[in-house]
Amino acid sequence: MRPSLLLVTWTILVCSCSDTGQEKVESADTLKTDLSNTKSLDTTSKVDSNNTNKATLTLDTLPNISLGKMTLVSSGQMSPYTTIKIDGCDFDLVTNDSDTTYLATNDKKFQTPEGYKVGTRFTELPIEIQTELTKEPDWGYYFKLLSGWTLGFCEGNSCTDKYPENGSKVKWIFKRR
């Protein structure tokens, strides 16, 4: 059953989105998804929860998630996604039933509450982040921030050919369950 009107409240983050480097495949098959229980996203410009800006996003129709339009959400999982726009930034949205399971962007306008964007240089990150990246074979290196957003790095053909170095940049920013 599809409701005729969907109201989603998003807490707005000043974030930058850009290309994830992850493969996407197009197809004509489609699947409608109910997003009526979608949780809010923290999109404040700072981690300070007292200064949270809120915006209401009203969707007249539910996003159309195509079965053939796929994105790599982990090293061993491709999932159908749709592209949505939040505050002028493009995000890839993956849902399971009525819950968001993966939200990613490579839009350079998106900025995390910590101030990181797609394109942020590896050397601009604190040493803690530089030395504590998690490697997910054939998917990328990543670091989960306190805000819940995760910085992703893709190095080489497999995205994990080598550890990010001084010339490396954040390729995408995401949240996943």
TrEMBL record:
It comes from the Bacteria. This is DUF4430 domain-containing protein. It comes from Panacibacter microcysteis.
